């Protein structure tokens, strides 16, 4: 039987690193911990297909693709917006401001509306998909990080290892799952995207995205984005260490294309997810 290569060890260490709370979102990451065991999830590499311009002032919180169009939510008080973005140029085609005293977070599509979270403001907003005009705002009982839609429910993250499945109209909790890797709870789940039967998540300040089984919370896939993070970090003189972290996942179900970016990144990457070739188990061959 093949096993995950030793190349997965630093990847797992970066992924499992403990960090302080979300309040340091615009601050610095801690040093990486000691290497962790290779995870049982399938490892994927992100093969870069194309690079597109991205607004380097956008503190990206949510990203989604629908009907040939890219939508983005951004954060920071006084700067948070819901946007329609031109993929080829990075230009903002239309935008609506989230109230200036609120910190915008993740976003999902529900019917003909966009639904967006706020971080600690305990408010959830709905916007017209066509015009981006506000539709309504409601109280929300949880800290808001990421949001997506799965099987007739909205799914929200709050920075912990818990995903909550919510009634899309009342936001009542229908069920919860704890996200785990090899039985270990994995926290700091941020931006969410639903694709290929899994819930995909950024993990705040890590260099991977993960594919989560919505039935039981088990992480089935880990996508290595270390080369993309390194490219941005090098181009911006250590910007990733100062808050410009990986965040933003969009999937086009019609074409199968994947798009990823980060907070304050000047680049939107189109990537192809390629299963990593496993190396033979050296112990099995006596090596």
What this model shows, in words?
This protein has 287 residues and is mainly β. The strands form 5 sheets. Strands 16-17-18-19-1-22-21-20 form an 8-stranded mixed β-sheet. It has a 4-stranded antiparallel β-sheet with strand order 2-3-4-5, with no helix packed on it. It starts with 7 loop residues before the first helix and ends with a helix. It is built from 3 helices and 22 strands. A hairpin with a 6-residue loop joins strand 18 (208-212) and strand 19. The model is unreliable at 1-11 and 17-35 (pLDDT under 50).
Q: Can you write the helix and strand succession as a string?
A: HEEEEEEEEEEEEEEEEEEEHEEEH
What shape does the CA trace take?
A: globular
From the N-terminal CA to the C-terminal CA, the straight-line distance is 15 Å
Major sheet size, sense and barrel closure: 8 strands, mixed
Number of β-strand runs: 22
Parts with pLDDT < 50 across at least 5 consecutive residues: 1-11, 17-35
What's the arrangement of strands in the largest beta sheet? 16-17-18-19-1-22-21-20
- Mean pLDDT comes to 86
The share of residues in extended strands comes to over 45%
Number of helices: 3
User: What Rg, in angstroms, do the CA atoms define?
Assistant: 18 Å
Class based on secondary structure composition and strand pairing: mainly beta
Helix fraction, binned, reads: under 10%
Properties at a glance:
287 residues; mainly beta; globular; disordered N terminus
Chart the SSEs and their pairings.
Elements: H1 8-16, E1 42-53, E2 60-66, E3 69-74, E4 81-85, E5 92-97, E6 104-110, E7 113-118, E8 123-128, E9 134-139, E10 147-150, E11 153-157, E12 162-166, E13 173-178, E14 180-181, E15 184-185, E16 189-195, E17 198-203, E18 208-212, E19 219-224, H2 226-235, E20 246-252, E21 257-262, E22 267-275, H3 282-285
Parallel strand pairs: 1-19
Antiparallel strand pairs: 1-22, 2-3, 3-4, 4-5, 6-7, 7-8, 8-9, 10-11, 11-12, 12-13, 14-15, 16-17, 17-18, 18-19, 20-21, 21-22
């Amino acid at each position: 039987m093949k096993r995950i290569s030793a190349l997965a060890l630093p990847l797992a260490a970066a992924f499992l690193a403990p960090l302080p709370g979300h309040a340091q979102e615009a601050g610095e990451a801690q040093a990486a911990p000691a290497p962790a065991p290779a995870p049982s999830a399938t490892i994927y590499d992100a093969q870069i297909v194309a690079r597109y311009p991205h607004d380097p002032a956008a503190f990206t919180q949510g990203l989604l693709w629908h009907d040939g169009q890219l939508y983005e939510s951004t954060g920071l008080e006084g700067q948070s917006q819901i946007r329609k973005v031109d993929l080829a140029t990075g230009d903002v085609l239309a935008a609506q401001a989230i109230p200036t005293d609120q910190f915008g977070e993740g976003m999902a599509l529900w019917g003909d509306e966009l639904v967006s979270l706020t971080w600690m403001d305990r408010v959830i907003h709905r916007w017209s998909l066509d015009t981006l005009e506000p539709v309504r705002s409601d109280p929300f009982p949880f800290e808001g990080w990421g949001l997506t839609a799965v099987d007739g429910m909205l799914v929200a993250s709050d920075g912990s290892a818990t995903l909550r499945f919510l009634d899309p109209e009342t936001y009542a909790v229908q069920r919860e799952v704890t996200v785990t890797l090899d039985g270990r709870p994995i926290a700091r789940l941020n931006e969410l995207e639903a694709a290929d039967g899994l819930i995909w998540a950024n993990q705040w300040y890590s260099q991977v995205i993960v594919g989560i089984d919505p039935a039981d919370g088990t992480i089935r896939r880990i996508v290595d984005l270390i080369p993309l993070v390194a490219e941005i970090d090098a181009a911006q003189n250590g910007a990733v260490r100062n808050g410009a972290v990986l965040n933003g996942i969009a999937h086009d179900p019609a074409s199968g294309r994947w798009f990823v970016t980060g907070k304050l990144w000047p680049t939107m990457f189109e990537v192809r997810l390629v299963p990593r070739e496993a190396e033979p188990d050296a112990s099995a061959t006596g090596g």
